[in-house]
Amino acid sequence: MFTLLKTEGHARRGIFETVHGTIQTPFFMNVGTAAAIKGGISSIDLANELKCQVELCNTYHLHLRPGDKIVRQMGGLHQFMNWHKPILTDSGGFQVFSLAKLRRIREEGVYFQSHIDGKAIFMGPEESMQIQSNLGSTIAMAFDECVENPAPLDYVKNSCARTTRWLIRCQKEMQRLNSLEGTINPHQMLFGINQGGTYDAIRVSHMQEIAQLGLDGYAIGGLAVGEPTEIMYHIIEQVEPHMPVDKPRYLMGVGTPSNIIEGVARGVDMFDCVMPSRNARHGTIFTWDGILHITNAAYETDSQPLDPKCDCPVCRNHTRAYVRHLFKAKEQLAGRLAVMHNLYFYNTLLERIRDALDAGEFAQFRKEYSERLAQRI
Question: What average pLDDT does range 316-329 have in this prediction?
């Protein structure tokens, strides 16, 4: 399924073949949490205009609305969204721990209340796999516990051990679901998630343990949740040598353009983050010279595109002055245009990283852009 084409240092260039199409790696997943990109972006926009290879949707949110059984009845997420490229579904674990009210963690799973209406819900490894099977995603993520950073050493140890037991149950349940007649995607893949907080030894031990399970891919979870960036990079460096070379590597919830470049330099293949769309809806624009805030007065009569070095549909057709006006006038089109630009920028960033790896010039690309893309204009 995954072919490593070449490396440059720890950076990797590969091809990931799935039942819903071939993915060029490294890549960024555009986050459509509830089967839609916030900001009014359609599947047609993603496929035809924004260079999106993979969309990410969320198990927890889709279980609550409209309900995974309804999505199954509608033919699965691909039919429901009219998106026919790969989809990854997050397991719902992070949302259970970040959004749910009055959660109780037990060996069997987690009892919690919906953040929408307070309804009592139970989710464990089997339930998460069943929901994701109903959604029919290309890649399902294992159900895990995402601990806070920092967290007490003993708690992290116990949590990691339980996450491993949950992962084994996820694997067994997915094998059962994929064998059933009528399963929407009998080729659904399972990724395990490395946890361990900011403790090097636990991270390494946990990665070594789950690498023995022969899963379809492996993720590093529980980072980018408030710890300093340098600690995140350090944890990746500790874990990466123990991740299977022949499987995709996913850094969950990351991040800024600079984070992505630095993640690739440390051996990561897959990224996702709400940042490009969330920040866009508040007027923050990513460009090849850094980050600008389009609502600033400096852009009131600026006739340039959002980024003169960008050829996205927005930059080809609209000025900074116009987009700023839309934000000031609270027009919905403001968010849509800004989100379109930022998603195009992120997908183009990964495209250029792949090109640099193909040419053996990633180190030069990293040197030129890692700091530049993080600066404020």
Answer: 98
Q: Given its phi and psi angles, is residue 109 left (phi above 0), alpha (psi -120 to 50 degrees) or beta?
A: left
pLDDT at 102: 81
Contacts by 102-107 with C-beta closer than 8 Å and gap 24+?
105/145, 105/162, 107/162, 107/165
The verdict on whether 269 is a catalytic residue reads no
Q: Is 1 exposed, middle or buried (0-12, 13-18, 19+ CB in 10 A)?
A: middle
> Which of 68, 90, 216, 269 does the annotation list as catalytic?
90
Architecture of domain 2-273: Alpha-Beta Barrel (3.20)
Read off the amino acid at residue 128.
S
Identify how many contiguous H helices and E strands the chain contains and give both numbers.
Answer: 15, 16
Tokens encoding 148: 């806070």
Tens digit of pLDDT for each residue in 38-57? 999 999 999 999 999 999 99
Cα distance between residue 169 and residue 210, in whole Å: 12
Task: Kindly list the domain boundaries of the chain, sorted by start residue.
Answer: 2-273, 280-374
Band of residue 174 on the pLDDT scale cut at 50, 70, 90: very high
Residue 185 scores a pLDDT above 90: yes
Q: Is 273 annotated as a binding residue?
A: no
- The burial of 118, by beta-carbon neighbours within 10 Å (0-12 exposed, 13-18 middle, 19 or more buried), is given as exposed
State yes or no: is 216 an active-site residue: no
